[in-house]
Protein: ABC-2 type transport system ATP-binding protein
Organism: Sporomusa malonica
Amino acid sequence: MICLTNVTRRFGTLTAVDQLNLEVKAGTIFGLVGPDGAGKTTTIRMITGIMSLTSGKISLLGSENIESVKDQIGYVPQKFSLYGDLTVMENIRVIGALYGADNKRVAELGTEILAFTNLLPFKDRLADNLSGGMKQKLALAAGLMHRPKIFFLDEPTTGVDPVSRREFWQMLYRLNKEGTTIFVSTPYMDEAELCTRVAFMSQGRIVASDTPKNLKAAYPFRLLELTAESKSVKSALAKCPIVEVNAFGDHYHLVTEHSPETVPKVEAALQAAGIEGYLLRDIPPTLEDVFVHLAGEGGAACTP
Ligand SMILES: Nc1ncnc2c1ncn2[C@@H]1O[C@H](COP(=O)(O)OP(=O)(O)OP(=O)(O)O)[C@@H](O)[C@H]1O
C-alpha cells in the first residue's frame, strides 16, 4: 500500500531522511516513532506528495504518481490550521467544499463525521473556543471528509491531555476497524505500543521496524528494576557488570547482560555499600527501552 525504496531528502548539507526503506500493508495502524528532528514530518510530507524527494522511489496505493491517488489519502499535518472565527460545522463545510462535494452531501457527511468524533454537540462553537483536544479532533474530522483509504496523521496528539489522547486513539481504532489504513507519527512511546506495526526513526534512518511484541522480544538485554531509598545506588553499582543504570525517582532500571552472576553481584555490591531494604526484580522491556537501545546503536537493522 505504501512502499519507500531508498528514499532520501536533503536540505543543503543536512540529510533529514537517509536511504529509507519502508513497507506498509493495508489495514495496518503504522506508527513512525522517534524524537523531534528524527525526520518523521519530512517522511510523511514526501509520501503524501507535499515535498519532493532528493532520491529514491515512493509507491502509494500501487502508483508512483502520487497526484493520481491524492484523493484517496487524508492528511492531518502537525500544525493544522482551523478558521478560528468559524464554527466547527462551518470549518467542516469549508473542507468539504474544497473537495468538491455538493452542499447536501457536505452537510450529511459533516454531521456523520462530527458524530463519529464526538464533536456534534459542539458544532456551533467557534473553533477558537475549542480545547486543544477538541481542535485535534476537528483536524481529524476535516481529514476524513473525503473518506480516505489511507489516513496520515503527523504527531496528532502533541500537547493534548491524556484523556483526550485516549479518546483520539479510540477513534483511530474505530476508523481502522472500518477499513482505513492509519499512518501516524508520534514521539510518545505509549502511543507506539498502540500501533499494530512500528518503525523507529532516529537521525533520518529507520533503526527497526516490526510489531511492538516482536520488537520487545528481540531486546537483547535483561532488565532489572531496583527500588532503593539511597542516593548512592549508582556509585554502589559502579563495579557491577551492568550496561546502564537509569534512575526514575527511587526506581532504577539496570540494563544487564543475561548472566546468572548479575543478581548476586548486584546484591553483594548493595550490601557492601550498606544499602538495605531494597527490592530487586526482573521486568519486561518497554518499547522505550528498545528504542533507547536501538538509537544508541546508531541505526543497525532496517527490516522493511
Ligand atoms: N524545510 C526545511 N528546511 C531545512 N531543514 C529542514 C526543513 N524541514 C525539516 N528540516 C530539518 O530536517 C530534520 C528533520 O525534521 P522533521 O521535521 O522531518 O523531523 P520530525 O521527526 O518530524 O521532528 P519534529 O517533531 O520536530 O517535526 C530536522 O533537522 C529539521 O530541522
Q: What stands out?
A: The CA atoms of residues 91 and 165 lie 22 Å apart.
